[in-house]
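Below is how a single chain appears once it has passed through the pipeline. First comes the sequence as given, then the structure the pipeline wrote out for it. We keep one example in the README because the format questions we get most often are answered faster by looking than by reading.
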Amino acid sequence: MNETVNTITEHIKAIDTVWVALCAAMIFLMEGGFALLEAGFVRRKNAMSIIAKVIIDVAFGGIAFFVLGFGIAYGNSNGWFAFDWGITQGDIGLGFAVSNNLFWFIQLGFAIAAISIVSGAIAERMKISAYAVLVVVFCALLYPLVANWVWNPNGWLAKEGFIDFAGSAAVHTMGGFAALAAALVLGPRLGKYNED
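Resulting structure:
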């Protein structure tokens, strides 16, 4: 009997792992969609800049989320903030059947999707170097802080019973408010919307 239960548990874990890996891959495929969408909103001379921003999202955002972001989002939280380095290998209290490495990968996709929202809002208005700094700060600190509140089992919103299905608050709201703040600071695009 125990052998049958163990076999079923292993099969469930394998199916969950494949499913989460496929979902993570689809989330990362959105980056190509973001690149095409944003390239269609800008003038031809800035299209390559948009593609570079998507590459910066994945490269710089990935490193920042690996080094610090995941630990802030899913480390041992006091309700408001957590701190840990890299990918936490211990139990993060969510009861998942997938490894923390795979969970980090899908969460990285969410962090990069959130910063991609900001990228579209500031198209043609920010230098690549300044944008790279924004990506690092966003993926290392800002987004993980909100993810901690919402998805960490000890986060203050999670303890209040807040449920964020598919990232409507942690990903889209955080990305939207950060995009609004950046657009207000940078102002309108110069030279695109003239009186003529």
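The chain has one domain: 2-186.

See the next section for the split statistics.
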